[in-house]
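Worked Example 4.2. Consider the chain below.
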Amino acid sequence: MFVSIGEGDGNEMQAALAEWTGRKTVPNVFIAGKNIGGCDSVMELHQSGQLVTLLANAGAIANNSAQL
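Applying the procedure from the previous section yields the following structure tokens:
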């Protein structure tokens, strides 16, 4: 799911993110309802080989998907 932030509601969205996750930075990535973090966290998961597994377990990609 992607949430688009329109002009003028960015402060409200950042406040909501801070309340839900303790972080107000964007992007703020969730996989299977779990907060993963921002871009750096997603890149770390990718580089360590864990991102594809998380996405497959969440049903976001096929279990037999090629390593990205």
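Residues 43 and 67 are 14 Å apart (CA to CA). The chain has a mean pLDDT of 84. Compare this with Example 4.1 before moving on.
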